[in-house]
Specification:
metal-binding; five-stranded parallel beta sheet; cobalamin binding; Cbl-bd_cap; binds CO-5-methoxybenzimidazolylcobamide
Length: about 210
């Protein structure tokens, strides 16, 4: 079995204690960090499909998510790009009612590696907390809101509306997450949308540059 396949299977099985070492072995065997990350993201899709079909339940999803986070911890230092550029500060969080953070963490890592200082508010972030954080920190030019559930899309809308009516002039808002489309992002008044972590970093630079 290739090392990447092993990582994929360990994440799917939620083997948190073994994933870090397997990721390191895959790297040592010559796999690229991006390749390993892609394999782990694919594992989470398998986990999601198994949940949808009733084969597994919430605890198994949670355990798999923890395992993926362990793998990401090993990759994080290798994915950090040239952060010598200072593009300002970005406040990021997953919107109210939503506990999914793996995608948000990847987006945060990529925006940081593009040259931003990140203020990560975590998950289940009330709309007004994005504004509060943006006012409390210096040079916040960007707020990034993640949402993974169709049921929390209204919370994304509320977050954007609250930020836009807060008097934070010049602060751009980017949104994303699996159920979010470019059309929805435009409809709720976001300045930007990105489908994945890599393009979120590109869009972040575009919006602020
Ligand atoms: Co949940 N969950 N979950 N879950 N979960 C999904 C999202 C789901 C699709 C599974 C399924 O049914 N197939 C489904 C949503 C269905 C829907 O809304 N239509 C679902 C559900 C239903 C639920 C619960 C309601 C289940 C229940 O309780 N009955 C519940 C809700 C809890 C809550 O949030 N209030 C729930 C709970 C959980 C856990 C807590 C157990 C766990 C999350 C743990 C954690 O995050 N620490 C979990 C997990 C792990 C998943 C799946 C399996 C994996 C999510 C993930 O991490 N993917 C997921 C199925 C799936 O995704 N296929 C699922 C990997 C990650 C890298 O991808 O997050 O999409 P993603 O991020 C991508 C892009 O979306 C994008 O870039 C990222 C990287 O490329 N992106 C952005 C994300 N944010 C962005 C922001 C941007 C730009 C791009 O700009 C700001």
């Amino acid at each position: 079995m290739s090392k990447i396949t092993e990582v994929k299977e360990l994440v799917e099985a939620g083997k948190s204690k073994k994933v870090g070492a397997a990721v390191q072995e895959a790297l040592d065997a010559g796999s690229q960090p991006g390749e390993i990350l892609e394999a782990m993201v694919a594992s989470m899709s398998v986990v999601g499909d198994k949940f949808s079909s009733g084969e597994i339940f919430v605890p198994e999803m949670l355990i798999a998510a923890k395992a993926m986070s362990k793998g990401v911890d090993v990759l994080r230092p290798l994915m950090a790009g040239d952060s010598s550029a200072s593009l300002g500060t970005c406040v990021i969080g997953t919107v109210a009612g939503d506990l999914h953070d793996i995608g948000k963490n990847l987006v945060s890592m990529m925006i940081e590696s593009a040259g931003f200082t990140m203020v990560d508010l975590g998950v289940d972030v009330p709309a007004e907390n994005f504004v509060k954080a943006a006012k409390e920190h210096d040079n916040v030019d960007l707020i990034a809101c993640s949402g993974l559930l169709t049921t929390t899309m209204p919370a994304l809308k509320e977050a954007v509306a609250t930020i836009k009516s807060s008097g934070l002039t010049g602060c751009k808002v980017i949104v994303g997450g699996a159920p979010v489309t470019p059309e929805f992002a435009a409809e709720i008044g976001a300045d930007g949308y990105a489908p994945d972590a890599g393009s979120a970093a590109v869009k972040a630079k575009e919006l602020v540059g």
